[in-house]
Amino acid sequence: MAIRDYIRQRFFPHMWCPGCGHGIVLNSMLRAVEQLGMSKNEIVMVSGIGCSSRISGYVDFHSLHTLHGRALGFATGVKMSKPELNVIVPMGDGDALAIGGNHFIHAARRNIAMTAIVMNNRIYGMTGGQYSPLSGHGTSATTAPYTNIDHDFDVVKLAKAAGASFVARSTTYHARQVTDILKQAIVHDGFSVVEILSQCPTYFGRKNRMGGPSDMMEWFKENTTPIGSKAKAENPALIERGIFVQDEDKPEYCTEYDKVIERAMGGRS
């Protein structure tokens, strides 16, 4: 299938602001699905509320557009009822780590096989540019005009600590790397977390004087480095990208649950 076959073309043009990084994420994800040769009927996309969550409306997969912060809860129900399906959950700052934070850590703890894509643009874009759990100390937002004093989550460290068996990070500047990582994440038999740094020129970029979309993507280029690089040793402030965890031995939740059913049925016979 060609990429256009995975798109609901009737819903275009999309609603994202000019220069938003989420369209790049959509493109990279569709390329990953195409290269894997997956059928549309093999995939379910579950999203919550926000700029990132609109992706579910643009893909011609089975899709659920659900409640804010509850995408992983709905996705868990889908996976438990139809474990043969590939479940992809696109999330933004809030869906993943604010109102959805508890669902995030428990989905990771259970190691249920689905792919959580965390589009980190460090802002609440759809509702007016409020600061988020990923904005970071010292940044500005409409709700932090005198700068934000909250410290941000490190998505990779949080996912690792919570027990996710596949954890990776990249940026919209590194679109080909995103495609490669998503291919591995989607076929991984466990909970996969892929953080993608994505630019929001309309709010985060404007409020923090980071320039336009190309300037923000240039920032991703200059301020990230591959895992374990010499540059990281020389400049600890650089953000590492790549695959941090790829544990193929940790039991997957649906498989373990099937064993519970077998034991229960055997005990009754």
UniProtKB/TrEMBL annotation:
Q: What keywords were assigned to this record?
A: Oxidoreductase
Residue intervals of the Thiamine pyrophosphate enzyme TPP-binding domain: 49-196
Domain of life where this protein originates:
Bacteria
Q: List each coiled-coil range.
A: none
User: What is any Pfam family matched here?
Assistant: TPP_enzyme_C
Q: Which InterPro entries match?
A: 2-oxoacid:Fd_oxidoreductase, THDP-binding, TPP_enzyme_TPP-bd
Molecular function as annotated in GO: oxidoreductase activity, acting on the aldehyde or oxo group of donors, iron-sulfur protein as acceptor; thiamine pyrophosphate binding
**An individual GO BP term:** cellular respiration
Please state what the protein is called: 2-oxoglutarate ferredoxin oxidoreductase subunit beta
| Protein's organism | Desulfonema ishimotonii
